[in-house]
Amino acid sequence: MTAGAATVPTVDDVRAEVRAWLEGHWDPERPLVEWRGLLVDSGWACPSWPAEWYGRGLPAAMDAVVADELTSIGAVGTPTGAGMGLAGPTILAHGSDELRGRMLRPILTGETTWCQLFSEPGSGSDLAGLTTRADRDGDEWTVNGQKVWNTSAHHADLGVLVARTNWDAPKHRGITYFVLPMRQAGVEVRPLRQMNGYSSFNEVFLTDVRVPADNVVGEVDGGWAVALATLALERRGFAAPRAVRPVSGAPGRTVREAQAEADEYMKTYVWYPQRAGRADLVVERARATGRSGDPVVRQKIAALLSMQRVAQWTAQRALAARKLGRPPGPEGSLSKLSASNIARAAAGVHTLVSGPSATLAGADSPMAGIITEVLVSVPAVSIAGGTDEVQRNIIGEQVLGLPKEPQVDRDIPFRDVPKNTGREGRRP
Ligand SMILES: Cc1cc2nc3c(=O)[nH]c(=O)nc-3n(C[C@H](O)[C@H](O)[C@H](O)COP(=O)(O)OP(=O)(O)OC[C@H]3O[C@@H](n4cnc5c(N)ncnc54)[C@H](O)[C@@H]3O)c2cc1C
Questions:
Q1: Ligand 1 center from residue 378 Cα (angstroms)
Q2: Of 203, 209, 214, which Cα lies nearest the Cα of 182?
Q3: At residue 77, does pLDDT exceed 80?
Q4: Is the distance from the beta carbon of residue 124 to the nearest atom of ligand 1 less than 6 Å?
Q5: Residue 120 CA: which ligand 1 atom is closest?
Q6: 380 lines ligand 1 (CB under 6 A)
Q7: Ligand 1 within 6 A of CB of 394
Q8: Is 384 in the pocket of ligand 1 (CB under 6 A)?
């Protein structure tokens, strides 16, 4: 099999070829970045990417096949995070060759970490109403404004940023998409404290921040289309998780370094299992509290687990369609909404089963505080990556073909759009 050949190789061809390559190259004592460099240059780090950009031009389904092979010998792959999940695929699809050349390899090797600088205090669901501004100044842009809810911004090297570059165009047509270097004067990252006690998000204040003109992704004023590509990746749950996690306890320097990297990264997300509702714990809790014979509790548990099973089947249907090369269907739009319905239903069942003790925290509380953590973490699912209401609008309009919701500010110059936040950046 030759990379880029017209005939599509079979799964067995791919397995054989990657296995042979791994036999010749996997050495568990290599420094992590050096190992990933080899993997990236071989095209096996992300086989579905084009051959000219570190891939092999294989069908998307082959990513999982190759990941299996890496896992089976205890080798590690590309890192997890906004770099691989959001920035990399967006730059691959919309960036200039120069930007791809500069940005993609360090994303794949894990040498750069990334965050997403989209939401603002007055622009979350209405992202196109953003008022962080970028003004051209020679061969750079100067950025001023405020972003919020930025996961991992406190340790990111780079951010994908959307900012307003044209105030005379309608709101969707005056936005530009940038790669912003985070480690510079004028970028102030302030952690936020959540009601579950963790601190995973930040406010990011941008004051006269400099961005090279070559860091524009796509066209100046054409950033909305690029932002939609990033949002689509986010809503599909970072559609292609190419990271191959280190096999816990496997020997060698490469795995040790990958494990340390993953542990550091996961600090931000330790509460995410609870955010998903922990439906896996409801039966155990019902038995432990003696509520498993209660007909109401049994009904609620059955309804919850049925919802979860249906969502799994829908996800499997979407995966099967992707493997057959079909375009994304309605399943993708439904999955985010069903995740938040399931999380909320699970929190409801936990409350019913545990009663008032569900509100207790600390080592001697139910499951050492996990149930409380579920209750105060679940609301995040209905907001992150687009709220439930906005998701319903998308399903209504794009899947069911219902009329679009009225929008009075879509076609007028952005500077004439009334705003009531009082917090937007200076208008020119
Ligand atoms: C866990 C988490 C992680 C996040 N991570 C990031 C990140 O890394 N980077 C980043 O940039 N942002 C991030 N966000 C921000 C997130 O994208 C926004 O919070 C979200 O888009 C909602 O925006 P908002 O908070 O401004 O709410 P608003 O948009 O002000 O919404 C308020 C309420 O109005 C409703 N509403 C708004 N518009 C409509 C409409 N047209 N029709 C019906 N109802 C409507 C909403 O559904 C909601 O109930 C994160 C948020 C969370 C909770």
A1: 15
A2: 209
A3: yes
A4: yes
A5: 26
A6: yes
A7: no
A8: yes
> How many whole angstroms from its chain centre is CA 9?
30
- Is the CB of 118 inside a 6 Å radius of any atom of ligand 1? yes
Nearest to residue 76, comparing CAs of 122, 116, 30? 30
Categorize the per-residue pLDDT at 217 as very low, low, confident or very high, splitting at 50, 70 and 90: very high
Instruction: For residue 182, give the DSSP letter.
Output: -
CA distance to 198, 253, 375, 409, per residue, from 171 (Å): 35, 50, 37, 8
pLDDT of residue 240: 38
* Helix, strand and coil percent figures for the chain, each rounded to 5: 50, 15, 35
Mutate to test the pocket of ligand 1, among 180, 194, 387, 409 (most ligand atoms within 8 A of CB): 387
**Residues 260/357, Cβ–Cβ less than 8 Å:** no
Token pair recorded at residue 46: 């992300």
Contact 201, 192 (CB under 8 A): yes
Closest residue to atom 39 of ligand 1, CA basis: 390
Which residue, among 384, 354, 355, 359, has the nearest Cα to 369 in the 3D structure? 359
Q: What is the pLDDT of residue 246?
A: 62
Half-sphere exposure of 42 (CA within 13 A, CB side): 20
Threshold 0.70, pTM exceeds: yes
CA 395 to ligand 1 centroid distance, Å:
17
Residues paired with 377 in a beta bridge? none
Cα maximum dimension of the chain: 72
* Residue owning the nearest CA to atom 40 of ligand 1: 390
Tokens of 393: 């609008």
Whole-angstrom Cα distance, residue 206 to residue 165?
15
d(CA 350, CA 373): 11
The alpha carbon of 380 and the centre of ligand 1 are apart by a number of angstroms equal to: 10
Residues 6 or more apart whose CB falls under 8 angstroms from that of 309 comprise none
Most ligand 1 atoms within 8 A of CB, residue of 119, 146, 234, 344 to mutate: 119
Q: What is the mean pLDDT of residues 99-115?
A: 97
125 CA closest ligand 1 atom index: 29
Interatomic CA distance for residues 329 and 316, integer angstroms: 12
Q: Relative to the CA of 122, which ligand 1 atom is closest? A: 26
CA end-to-end span of the chain, whole Å?
58
Only one residue has tokens 């689509």, namely 232
DSSP at 50: -
